[in-house]
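User: I'm putting together notes for a lab meeting next week and I want to include a structural view of one of the chains we've been expressing. I don't have a solved structure, so I'd like a prediction I can at least talk through. The sequence is below, exactly as it appears in our construct file.
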Amino acid sequence: MSDPTPLSEELPRMHIPAYAHDTIRAALPSMPTSRQVGGLDCCLCDDPFGEDLAAIPLGPTPTSGLFGCRPCLTRLVTRARRARDAALAQDAERARAESADWLPVRERHLARLDSVRQAAEAVAGLARDGDAEPLKVAWLLVSLESARAWLPDAPEPPASTDRKDPELSDEAFRLDLSMITAREAVAERLAYHLINDAQPEEPEMCAELECPEGCSGRHDSSHIDCGPDTVFEDLAEHGITVDRPDPEPLSPRLAALLGRTEAEEKGSLLPEIEEHALVVLARFGIDADDTDVLVSTAAVGLVADAWREGLLAVIHAAGNGPSNGEIFAQSVDLYRRARAALVAARDDGPEVLLAFAAVASDVDLPWAGGSRFALRTVSESVAEFVQHVDDRVWFTAEVMREQSWRASLLHRAASAAIKTPAHFGMPGWPAAVTSAMERLAVLDLSGAPKALADLAAVEAALLEAPDRLGVDALDWICARALLSSHND
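Assistant: Thanks for the context. Below is the predicted structure for the 488-residue chain, given as structure tokens.
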């Protein structure tokens, strides 16, 4: 049966809802009579049409096909509506039953995913913390992978529910991410375990690393930066050749710092740095093969290049700028921080140099030696000074990242050898202290700060920690040029 079409003006109208079409179609006769086809009798009850029983066309056109009466059509529409409502009720009941069965299945699967995900996060945490033994960490990963493999496939929701369950897919995705994190953490832990297990003993490093008594002299590494190209060289040793990507051009910031042209940027950062630095250090009698001496000299150079050089002189000359003694004390404190950062960078990477930069450029931090001076108290060139510190430390980190830890030390150590050969932390510092003490011993100390009364204590402080004497004592020493290198 086709949908009723608009009736002619002579025939009455009746709305037949779509859900009743099949019911009416099923009630139509398979072999209608000529009177039914001619619109004389109802094709449903076979009663003749007349004034009391109007003919309602059922199609295919308002004037041809079959016709039914209103009572029959009303009865069939009512039957169809009741059948539809009953079917809807049955569907709803079935959906409720399926949902009641589905929810526990869904919750159990989500709980399984969540449990394994939490286990993966715990394994990653234990691998990173380093408390668990490497072998136990390896077994933890094996048992975690087993738990993941035993997870059943995601259950299929019933047809009556939404076939797309975002929570199921989200939880599965979170588990996958946690598994990746755990695998990475365990792989890194085991890789460094193998490396550290094969590390040679280096007892000469114990002093600068402040190792506890009884240290074996073997120091574990927790971070190694081999640079961007080492992996290609290592693979080549195994007969595997991988094309290396073209090197990135220097950033405008680095190019500006180096003063290099665009054509020159194709070369390496400070090429042949080790060769040139070794010549400079040898010229000043500094043993570059002594790691302890090299680190100390590089720390002096980093402080000189990043903090003391350039704009500090402008700040010093300001009316409320720091005194010579305050600069002396602060440079000593920063030397210790620079040295600690350089030592840590050997294992933890160049990012740890940011700790030194944060202190060196802190505008609110009072300076060492009991000083009350802070950079914020002056307005002359402070912003440029902070940028200068950041640029120089960043440059040191770039050299370390592109070439090596030793190359960055040689670069700053060569700078220190040229600019501050007799600074605190340099090999020449003890001789400078000896000379200063000889001159101090013949001076009239009646008006000197009390910290200078005990010459033996003064000498010990100058050798170990000059800022311990305090700003007043250092100002007195600087005013008499006893340590001229700190007035340069």
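A couple of points you could mention at the meeting. The beta strands are 56-61, 64-68. Residues 1-9, 260-267 have pLDDT under 50 and may be disordered.

User: Perfect, that's what I needed.
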